[in-house]
Amino acid sequence: MNILVIEDDQDIRDMICLSLSQANYQTYGCDDVKSAKKSIKQLKPDCLIVDWMLPDSSGIELVRWLRRKDEFKQIPTLMLTARAEESDKITGLESGADDYMTKPLSLRELRARVKALLRRPAIYQESSDNLVAGPIELNTETHEVSINQQIVDLTKTEYKLLKFFMTNEGKVFTRDQILDAVWGMNAYLGDRTVDVHILRLRKILKQYEQEKLIITVRGSGYRFSTKPKKKKTKKK
Fold this sequence. Notes:
This protein has 236 residues and is α/β, with parallel strands linked by helices. The chain has helices at 10-22, 33-43, 59-68, 86-94, 107-119, 156-167, 175-183, 191-206, and strands at 2-6, 26-30, 47-51, 77-81, 99-102, 131-133, 136-139, 144-147, 150-152, 172-173, 214-217, 221-224. It has 8 helices and 12 strands. A 5-stranded parallel beta sheet has the order 2-1-3-4-5, with helices on both faces. Strands 6-7-8-9 form a 4-stranded antiparallel beta sheet, covered by helices on one side. Helix 3 (59-68) links the parallel strand 3 and strand 4 (77-81). It starts with a strand and ends in a 12-residue tail after the last strand.
């Protein structure tokens, strides 16, 4: 399998390429976004390893470009950066990266994550079925979401989170289960990430008086339901 490493530090790039070559991967390297785009078109690699900070642009912009291209958007991508804040990890993943590692790197962990990414089948394939939950409609082909026939503007993560809930209406999920389903099993983020994004999604739904569709299940996690909450009957 071909792996393209986009890293402007030659020592780090050579170290990664050597380590992956020893694991029987064919590796290629480049040091900026311009050469990376050219290499992607020529090689059509099976996986990308992208540094966040590059001399002519950013790894974030490269990944966003990749996800806009039908012929490349399924390529799994691992983001490398010295940024360790949770907000930076969220930004990297929301740009379209599938996984995230901070420097200094563990080469053993890097190989394990690359192997896991390559095992994932058709990461960006979507169901052709449209989803409907109460007044909410979600088109899985165009990624358009409407509430009461009004188009709603969502980020990629908000869309994926809403789609997950609508696909699994009525089921209770822990924060870890939601992290695995929406961000991927190799995304090392905390429970707070789920809470923050659910809060944001609720704020959007509140504009249409639908925020109560996402239910907090105390001690368990979250559930999405369009069924009205049963009223407790008072004992006589």
